[in-house]
User: Fold Phosphate-binding protein from Aureliella helgolandensis.
Amino acid sequence: MLFRLATVCISSLLMLLLVGCGASSGDSASSNIKLQGSGASFPAPLYGRWFKEYSTATAGVKVDYQAKGSGGGIKDFIEHTVDFAASDAAMNDEEIAQAKPGVVMLPMTAGSVVLAYNLAEFKQPLKLSREAYSKIFLGQISNWNDPAIAAANAGTALPDLPITVVHRADSSGTTFVVTNHLSAMSREFADGPGVGKSVNWPESDKFIASPKNDGVTATVMQTPGAIGYVEFGFAEQAKLPMAELENKSGNYVAPTLENAKAALAGVEMPADMRAWLPDPEGAQAYPIVSYTWLLCYTEYDEAEKAAALKQLVAWCLSEGQKSSAEMGYVPLPENVVSAVKAQLDSIH
Assistant:
């Protein structure tokens, strides 16, 4: 009887040790863990694919993500209603100070913001000079046959049609990226609407607000003469034409993967992972490109949740990057992947 009791006790002790070892090693498969995130719609199609594939491949872990705009994600993160957030605008110092106990910002992918338009009878790729598209978003060019647009599209007939500008209604990292670029190349824009996740656009019935990237895309599709800024993948999926933009070197470039890579080529990632490309150098650099960040806490109350999140990020940096280009995003350069992996040690 004593022998049987001792055997049961030893078996129970071994089971406890095995469970303890599993938890300390970060093996989340033995538990039912749900990671909840919110934020940027810019990377939402890619994140949706990544998180679904990871949840399917990893027993016991489910990842949910709600695209509500970068501003909404940062608000949720500061208020601790999510386990992680996403933003196309890296948190500023004021926002970081509010994020307790601390934040780790991890660039996960990059992509182009395009100017998609609806000109049914204009069959050739539209070229927009720096003067033309900055003045469109200032409300100073209001018709498609304006001389500033016609000058870059010689030999083509531009329609006599009012321009409707579609911008984001929500607090948006995509808006931050676009206004950061416009402010970098136009003093008048910098002194007017300026840079921000939400800005005061010109007061006009030809400036329409729509929520998220998919809302802007849908409004452009439904509005003849419209132009709006959206992430490349949304415009591509909707089969909307995208303007070729004049870059800093004076060349007109399309928002291709190669031209987005050219924009990123000269960027060095700083220690805090906040790298901006307001007006990239390079003959083939597409002018509106940005990294997008995952926001994680430095400390989590549950060790298993912290371990699961770190495993998720590690998977996104390896297996996940393989599908980035297919989805219209720019895979991270190897040096950036290495830098982001090193930051995972800051999460506990």
Observations:
- The longest helix spans residues 2-24.
- The chain has two domains: 29-111+290-346, 112-264.
- Residues 1-30 have pLDDT under 50 and may be disordered.
